[in-house]
Amino acid sequence: MREKAIVVSKKGNKAEVEVIRTSACAKCKACSLGSEKKVIKVWVQNDVNANVGQVVEIEIENRALISATFIMYVIPLVSFLLGVILGLNFANTLNINIAWEEPFSLLTGLLFMSLAFLAIYLNNKRFEKSRMFTSRIVNILDE
């Protein structure tokens, strides 16, 4: 996936860029930015030595985008569903009153989902160090 951005600062071989939102962003409700005028700033690999103020094209590999989406959405969802199923089974094993089986399984599901998010959070530094999840500047658009 490629997007246009403006370099706002540099630090070594990294650059902080401000992503230029397209008109499609205003109509999309996929993220919390929606039609608001919030700015998206990210650190990217600056192998082309872009300078502050230049308009650049940044890229993140599709495989990385799909992997990140899987990590942030699918793993917690599966953990929640697994927790609900295990909670129902465990409630039967513990002979929990039938009126409390569903709330117990809901709480178990929420616990499993929370543990999944905690595992993701604890591994965040490792994900940040991985070049797979790092966006990079691929082209300087204005010279």
TrEMBL record:
Domain of life of the native organism: Bacteria
UniProt keyword Transmembrane helix, yes or no: yes
InterPro entries: RseC (IPR026268), SigmaE_reg_RseC_MucC (IPR007359)
Transmembrane segments: 70-91, 103-122
Keywords: Membrane, Transmembrane, Transmembrane helix
Keyword match Magnesium: no
Protein's name according to its UniProt entry: SoxR reducing system protein RseC
